[in-house]
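Researcher: Let's try something more involved. This one mixes different molecule types, so please make sure each is placed in the same coordinate frame as the others.
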Amino acid sequence: MSGADWLSYSLQDFVMFGPQVFLRLFVRINQDLWPWQLLAVVAAFGIPALFLSQGERARRLAVGLMALAWATSGYGFLVGYFGPINWPATWFGWAFVAQGALLAVAALSGRVPGSRLPVGKFAVLWLLAVSGLPWLAMADSGQWEAVALFGIAPGTTAAAGALVVALIPGPWRWFYLPLLVLWSLFCAAISWVLQTWWLLVTPIATLLLAGAGLWLSPRPARSPD
Amino acid sequence: MANRITRRKFLISSGLAGIALKSPVLFASTPGASSSSPIMRRIPGTDESIPAIGMGTWITFNVGGDTQLVQQRTRVLKTFFDLGGTVVDGSPMYGSAADVMGEALNSLNAHDRIFAATKIWTGDESETRQEAARSSRRWGVERLDLLQVHNLLGWQGHLETLKEMKANGEVRYIGITTSHGRRHREFAQIMEREPLDFVQLTYNVLDREVEDRLLPLARERGIGVIVNRPFQGGSLFRRFQSEPLPDWAGDVGVSNWAEFFLKYIISHPAVTCAIPATSKVEHMKENMGALYGRLPDAAQRKQMADYVRSL
Ligand SMILES: NC(=O)c1ccc[n+]([C@@H]2O[C@H](COP(=O)([O-])OP(=O)(O)OC[C@H]3O[C@@H](n4cnc5c(N)ncnc54)[C@H](OP(=O)(O)O)[C@@H]3O)[C@@H](O)[C@H]2O)c1
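Model: All components are placed in one shared frame. Result:
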């Protein structure tokens, strides 16, 4: 294909579904899961509580729940619901599952840094993400059943998951970050084409929270000399 | 297909009688025209005719496993058939649209009412037959009516196999597609050399490049023309729907913008069929209105294009 041909393509040409069917994905998964998504709500609010408790086991449990959330939103929402209308969503779905596995291995194989993590700031940002972002799909669709919960909806999960960069030991982080960036670009492109303007906030929040995660990550302790 | 035509004619006329009783407005809107029979176009080189308005499925029928939306799209398809439509265009590229079409055809029990036109869309030129077989399974039809090489992807290999398939009766018609004005030079070369039944290309009241070369060439070579993006992907409505129709719209058999855009296209002598896509029953009714009544002549077509340009 010539360069001129490529120039004739727009972002629109790559989005093969309409806003109605996309926003109904949130409604459908919530209807199909009811009432099990309440467990996801408990996890969303339990994770910062576990961090605040300061125990090593509690922190491990929190990271384990986070890893599970990546996997469930990836396999459930992306592979199960979004994939049939949009193939790249299936690839992202499996990448989310892998991200969950990576998080579990990276954080649980070593120590989950906690003592030097500014848990207060971490908890505030986390709570902002898991309680603020779910309403955006509702704002775009006008249906309360479209609420995009952490652990179910990949956007909210990735945004909160971005903050977890703070907990991942050094080099592992560079495996964890690319999916956050690619996912954010993918979501932003979709929201732009579908004109679901509220949902455009989620990928922006994801990138900002990844930045915040890097900023919050504990610095190596100073050498005593 | 030949044995389907009598049944189809019956279905069309009985469907129309019902619609005429229910919605006299549709028929009253094309004054002076013989509005009760659909505008049919002969497929060049055959005795078969197809309705000049078909439908596309890009985006609109890709609703996945959403049963509520599958049922709603089934109503769109039913409206299409009831109003005399037969030609449905799809592609393996359109996500779940082929499965949704299969489900809709099943629930309407309408496999014998469709002229199933889909595409081969794979870079692997040895996959033609497999992809065709997958498509017929997904659509739930025994034999596809038309197979087109989508956007010329791997066209050499696919076209060779398609020619064999046509010779063996595995498919009735073969063709190639392009859109958005892409690769027209290469497209014309293929039209000149290959024994195609159909080409599919973009043509609408604003995108008229094909009038210069591809449409005359199709006539000269006896190739049927299916027109995609007749509403420029919907942007014609966004741009012009708030504008008034011209005073003389009735003279060209037009009572709304959908009919205006579509009648402009199907009144071109080289065009066999336009395939607008919609997800809405109301829009389908408007679009199918273009299948009836008077068509503009050459001078009126020019007037239509000038009018749109003046807005
Ligand atoms: N290379 C290729 O082979 C190729 C490329 C492009 C297209 N195609 C085929 O051509 C078909 C048509 O092209 P397209 O779907 O891209 O664009 P199109 O038919 O020009 O426009 C479709 C858009 O128009 C809107 N619309 C339809 N009827 C309407 C009405 N009466 N009033 C207001 N809005 C209306 C639809 O929205 P609503 O759903 O709201 O009605 C939809 O957004 C495709 O579906 C596909 O099958 C093939």
